[in-house]
Specification:
Layout lengths: L2 H28 L9 H13 L1 H23 L5 H32 L2 H9 L13
Helix pairs in contact: 1-3, 1-4, 2-5, 3-4
């Protein structure tokens, strides 16, 4: 396999991973939910958190969407320019980090205002950590 093909595959892998993280952050920012089976009260509690912080999270989500589109456009552009893809991926990484930082600030600010039971509901809702398969015993 040539270096160029390997670099393209690596780039695609990075893009897919970053897009997955971006999608996850976007779902949380928009009030989405990956966990299954959480009681409705837990969902409502978390939706309130995201709605209160919408002004902080929405611009980050929008910037993330623009950065994702730029990566996609650069990846399929002809002639292919690896330097342009590298710049687009760097910007996407920056926007992803910014979105996660904003999300983490929203979680922290909200958790400071909640009592123990509300924080337990937040933790159990599946919004913060997916309910995927756990490894180990």
């Amino acid at each position: 396999m040539s270096f160029r093909n390997l670099a393209i595959l690596l780039g695609i892998s990075v893009v897919l991973n970053v897009l997955l993280v971006g999608f996850w952050a976007g779902q949380l920012a928009r009030g989405g939910h990956f966990g299954r089976g959480a009681p409705m009260s837990e969902d409502r509690a978390m939706r309130g958190v995201w709605k209160r912080h919408d002004a902080m999270l929405r611009p980050r989500t929008e910037a993330l969407q623009v950065a994702r589109r730029r990566v996609t456009e650069t990846l399929v552009a002809e002639p292919f320019q690896p330097e342009a893809l590298e710049a687009a991926l760097t910007q996407l990484r920056t926007e992803t980090d910014g979105a996660q930082g904003a999300l983490h600030r929203a979680i922290l600010e909200s958790a400071r205002e909640l009592g123990p039971e509300d924080r337990r509901q937040m933790a159990a809702s599946g919004w913060l950590v997916g309910r995927g398969q756990r490894r180990g015993p």
